[in-house]
């Protein structure tokens, strides 16, 4: 199969280059400055797109958005039914109140539909750039197997340029997609440890998602209840980063590491609050319970 590419002419490769250039995302989309995106901030630029991860997040995001859309559509149907009954009964004040609720839900549904269409548009553009990038990679490999001539060297330079442009466009789209991921509201529910947790024990929990950090301290009270200095934190989802959770026990001036775990956020894109119980120790003798609302 690679032999068939070996004789690919310079003219044809230049045509591909023009095609790739015309397909550039930034020439067709008004994307914001990369500073606006978590994954593209200065000092954090990694020109290494991850199509499989982006696909998983896109599918989870679209499913979650559709769940919200279905829930609000059901609410709209319910309110519309009550609206008709109220109109027949001539209770004007209640009727107008319902009318306001219906208009509010309709506006929210339109926003959700636009949100979904924007996410689909971004992912479609991402897939196009991914295919073009793969094509440029295959052609680079084919040209590298052919005898080195001036024409083939020019073609390789052009293909490398096209490959870089597609890579850059994919990273910009990843940044644009992150803007549409919403927020995770993470609530601390406490540690579960049965006999491992004793009154007076103090713990520190450190939660990290990319550059976002949450450090909180808690104490086991005499009645086995727990008090924490913070209860909730908002995290902005990230395409590539997982939640990293670290728990340490505080003993005077010393700290003892209890355990470190990672948690994928792909299952959090849903309408219902997600209760998460993660094993902090290998044997599961201490667990951490969190609640995540998207």
TrEMBL record:
- Out of the domains of life, which is the source? Eukaryota
Question: What are the FAM65 N-terminal domain coordinates in residue numbering?
Answer: 1-294
Quote any Pfam family the record assigns.
PL48
Q: Which family does it belong to?
A: Belongs to the RIPOR family.
UniProt protein name? RIPR3 protein
**Which species is listed as the source?**
Rynchops niger
């Amino acid at each position: 199969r690679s032999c068939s590419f070996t004789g690919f002419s310079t003219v044809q490769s230049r045509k591909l280059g023009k095609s790739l250039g015309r397909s550039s995302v930034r020439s067709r989309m008004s994307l914001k400055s990369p500073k606006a995106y978590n994954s593209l901030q200065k000092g954090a630029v990694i020109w290494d797109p991850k199509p499989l991860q982006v696909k998983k997040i896109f599918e989870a995001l679209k499913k979650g958005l559709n769940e919200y859309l279905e829930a609000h559509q059901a609410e709209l149907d319910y309110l519309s039914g009550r609206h008709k009954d109220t109109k027949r009964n001539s209770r004007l004040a209640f009727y107008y109140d319902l009318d306001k609720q219906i208009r509010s839900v309709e506006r929210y549904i339109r926003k959700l539909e636009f949100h979904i269409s924007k996410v689909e548009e971004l992912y479609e553009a991402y897939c196009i750039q991914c295919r073009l990038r793969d094509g440029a990679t295959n052609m680079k490999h084919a040209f590298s197997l052919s005898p080195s001539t001036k024409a083939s060297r020019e073609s390789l330079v052009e293909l490398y340029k096209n490959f870089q442009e597609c890579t850059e466009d994919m990273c910009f789209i990843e940044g644009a997609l992150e803007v549409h991921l919403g927020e995770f509201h993470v609530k601390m529910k406490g540690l579960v440890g049965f006999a491992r947790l004793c009154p007076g024990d103090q713990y520190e929990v450190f939660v990290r998602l990319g550059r976002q950090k949450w450090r909180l301290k808690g104490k086991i009270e005499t009645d086995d209840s727990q008090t924490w200095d913070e209860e909730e934190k908002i995290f902005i989802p990230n395409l590539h980063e997982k939640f990293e959770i670290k728990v340490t026990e505080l003993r005077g001036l010393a700290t003892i590491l209890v355990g470190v775990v990672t948690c994928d956020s792909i299952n959090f894109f849903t309408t219902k609050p997600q209760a998460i119980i993660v094993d902090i120790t290998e044997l599961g003798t201490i667990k951490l319970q969190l609640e995540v609302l998207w």
